[in-house]
Design goal:
The chain is α/β, with parallel strands linked by helices and 283 residues long. The protein has 2 domains: 29-114, Leucine Dehydrogenase, chain A, domain 1 (Rossmann fold), CATH 3.40.50; 140-262, 3-Layer(aba) Sandwich (Rossmann fold), CATH 3.40.50.720. Helices cover 40% and strands 16% of the residues. The protein has 9 helices and 11 strands. The strands form 3 sheets. A 6-stranded parallel beta sheet has the order 1-11-8-7-5-6. A 3-stranded parallel beta sheet has the order 3-2-4, with helices on both faces. Strands 9-10 form a two-stranded antiparallel sheet. Strand 9 (232-233) and strand 10 form a beta hairpin.
Length: 283
């Protein structure tokens, strides 16, 4: 059986770090603040918002939730985002996406100041990830992957790492973050040839495809570390990852679903808020 890379342990360690950071900021007169902007009533958005509120408030971060109707005009949303940019009591903003179809996603996310973009949605933040300059912040999901590797002492330097998925939310930034850690990185996607063989020859595999149990036995080897970013509900409503858990039992180490990357994501968000507040206050 593989070693289980328990995300709850990682989240707990990050939360303690965040609490210490929030306490230090408050001692110097800065109350770290997060704004969460949600347009509409998507159940998954509401669930993520509740989790982020619980995590941040328990760590000493003030949270302001801005819920807008589904039919909110784009100019109203942009005004709300610009007001957040101008509000010195708010150090980070989480803009829940996808946005309704009548709103220009690029215009909305890029209206946010990169200094307050704690989930890596702006083009400037993503450019910072690719350039290694950390302008803004990386998206929280790939950051959670890196936190898991760090917590369990996995040094990616020299590793053959494969990332399945090329989205700007997980795949591409995860690849760049691994490259920054001196891994040799390959990105696989729907047009990749011989994908199972490419993955099977890797030391580290990060999977983000958005389909339950899509990655099976042919992708794994016995010395491999597998990070499963996927969270999918099966026909019975149970949560399953993108990796077939039973067929991945031969690997060296793996994150569970639930309780893996997803458990760390909101903690990574809270950590970004503390960093943003520290930068804003000059600490």
């Amino acid at each position: 059986m593989p070693i289980i890379l328990d995300g709850k342990q990682v989240a707990s360690a990050i939360n303690e770090r965040v609490k210490r950071g929030a306490s230090a900021l408050r001692a110097r007169g800065t109350a770290p603040g997060l704004a969460i902007v949600r347009v509409g009533e998507r159940p998954d958005d509401a669930a993520y918002e509740r989790g982020a509120v619980r995590r941040c408030e328990s760590a000493g971060i003030d949270v302001r939730c801005i819920g807008l109707p589904e039919d909110t005009p784009q100019d109203v949303l942009l005004r709300s985002i610009r007001a957040i940019n101008d509000d010195e009591s708010i150090h980070g903003c989480l803009l829940l996406r996808p946005l309704p179809k009548h709103i220009d996603d690029s215009a909305a996310r890029n209206a946010l100041s990169p200094s307050k973009d704690v989930d890596g949605v702006t083009d400037m933040s993503l450019a910072g990830v690719f350039a290694g300059t950390r302008v803004g912040f990386p998206p929280c999901a790939p950051e959670a992957c890196m936190e898991i590797l760090d917590h369990y002492g996995v040094d990616a330097a020299g590793m053959r790492a494969v990332v399945i998925g090329r989205s700007l939310v997980v795949g591409k930034p995860a690849a760049m973050m691994l490259l920054e850690r001196n891994a040799t990185v390959t990105i696989c996607h729907t047009q990749s040839r011989d994908m199972p063989e490419i993955c099977r020859n890797s030391d580290l595999l990060i999977v983000s495809v958005g389909r339950a149990s899509a990655i099976g036995r042919d992708f794994f080897n016995r010395n491999q570390i597998v990070i499963d970013v996927g969270i999918n509900a099966d026909e019975n409503g149970a949560l399953r990852g993108d990796v077939n858990w039973e067929e991945a039992s031969m690997t060296k180490a793996i994150t569970p679903v639930p309780g893996g990357v997803g458990a760390v994501t909101t903690s990574a968000l809270a950590s970004h808020v503390i960093t943003a507040a520290s930068r804003a206050s000059g600490i």
